[in-house]
Amino acid sequence: MTDEILARLKKRVKNLPMQPGVYIMKDKSGNIIYIGKAKSLKNRVSSYFRSIDKHLPKVYQMVQHVDDFEYIVTDSEFEALVLECSLIKYHTPKYNILLKDDKGYTYIKITNEEYPRIESAKQRLDDGATYIGPYISGFVVKQTVDEANRVFALPSCSRKFPQEFGKGRPCLNFHMRRCMGLCQGKISKEEYAETLSQAMDFIKGGGNATLKILEKKMEEAAENLEFEKAAHYRDRIKAIQKINEQQKVVYAKAVNQDVHAFVQGSGDTCAVVLKFREERLVDKQDFFLGEVDSLPEARSEFLVRYYSGNSDIPPLIEIDDQYEDPELVEEYITQQAGKKVTLHIPQRGEQHKLVQMAITNAAQQISHLTEQSGRDVAALAELAKLLGLKKPPRYIEAYDISNIGSDTVVAGMVVFEGGKPLKSAYKRFSIKTVNGIDDYGSMREVITRRMKRYEEEKESGVSFGRLPDLILLDGGKGHVSAVAPVLAQFGVEIPLFGMVKDDRHRTRAIALDGGEIAIGSQRGAFTLISTIQEEVHRFAISYSRQKHQKAGLELALTTVEGIGPTRAKALFQHFKTKKAMTEATVEQLCQVKGISRQKAQAVYEYLHPELFPQEEEKIAEDGE
């Protein structure tokens, strides 16, 4: 976009009304590239042409192609919503969210052969087969076909019948009682046809309807003393009951509802819809929405698009979190359904468990795009929700102060990227400007030094040149209050929280400036925060112990003849650790500035007392 075009668009925006309506963005060829609704046309449209460089990539790309715009004023925001949906469906603009998944129509196919099979098919061919459908969901078709073949023990192998009757042994499915063993040639065509017909009734009428039919036939067979036939019906009844019980484990009370969950990754957002119909989970749909700036806004937009023109709208829709304009969205979906539809955000109980199930599935989809596990994605998303962050914090820094006495005060910084420790980015700090034990002052010094290093290295974008998405301090709200002014001083906006422990030194809550957030009920976030807190404490205290041991040995070295504080410090600066110094030869010790061979020999003997035992002083005893 040129400066000339931008100036022209800004001038046009000034004349927009502060009323609700729909705006239509066009490119230089006059093609519609984006359609949106607004509570206030002037405020909303003007936001696109301010601070363009700060827009998300998708919005930035859209704005770069805008050459002109139109708008339609409406009497209410609800009218704007309805009009927006209608225009998007008609024009299908490039930059609007497209609710398209990778599933086409799917059919249940009964093959045209002497012993027909039940299969799933992607296309309806002119092959004489019988097709049931189409179904939007391949998940439904596959589940239904698998259940029908398993319950009625129909063959699912690749053998041809009757051509291969008696050729070869029955497969493993027969021995596991999942196949009737048609390959043995002992089942008549009439008996097979009856079984196939029962399977088709099961597919068309569902498990409960088929149960009633089979129970009646079982009773008739028993009355006619056809006990073997009755046993077959009994086994099929048990198989259907088992299928139904497995479905009820998912959720027996979810009679007719949809469950929506949204999980953000580092560059994409996944929406998952679980569909429950007649006490069964019948479908799972995944949608990738790209990078979104606001999850509440994305949820609202997704719900409206998803149910616009949808003929299968249940009376209850469960959602994982807040969404924009709830009354407006619920009214629109109710209007689309032609009946009352309730949108609900469950906080506890069985419905909440279903939402968690949807979140897990969405997190798993995001994990396929990154190197993160589904569990880490879900934990970061849960943490972002808990702390009110716009998006999950991919890069987290945590700090802890540790001391062993007032002379050895240090700090440790650990980094977690994508929910995992990034040990190459860990840093250690020796406190320099704070005297004595002062955790608040020490933490201020550490964050100040860290921010100064950022100013020096930000061009590189690595190590200290990269700002975190979240800073965690091992401490309560006092630590947060002490450090927040430092971040403000450097003009950086980084979410800052403390990690609070209980009396047993276990993670209890998240602290912010002025209060606390309980995290015990948020399993994923709780585990992640606990892991980070334990890791930063371990790292800081290990450095503190190392420094304390070094200080003790440095002091002890001054007892060696010819070694004062200056030479003792020089030795440690050269060898870094006690282990390296102990493993050094006399010649290597001589390489340290100020250490002669005689002094090096004395240090070597001090570090290896087992090689140079001291002679005990002889005490004369009085004799008689």
TrEMBL record:
Domain GIY-YIG: residue ranges:
18-97
Q: Which GO terms describe its molecular function?
A: DNA binding; excinuclease ABC activity
User: What are the protein's UniProt keywords?
Assistant: Cytoplasm, DNA damage, DNA excision, DNA repair, Excision nuclease, SOS response
Q: Which SUPFAM superfamilies does the annotation name?
A: C-terminal UvrC-binding domain of UvrB (SSF46600), GIY-YIG endonuclease (SSF82771), RuvA domain 2-like (SSF47781)
**One cellular component (GO) term of this entry:** cytoplasm
Q: Where is the UvrC family homology region profile domain?
A: 259-487
Question: Do the record's keywords include Cytoplasm?
Answer: yes
Q: How does it assemble?
A: Interacts with UvrB in an incision complex.
Recorded protein name is UvrABC system protein C
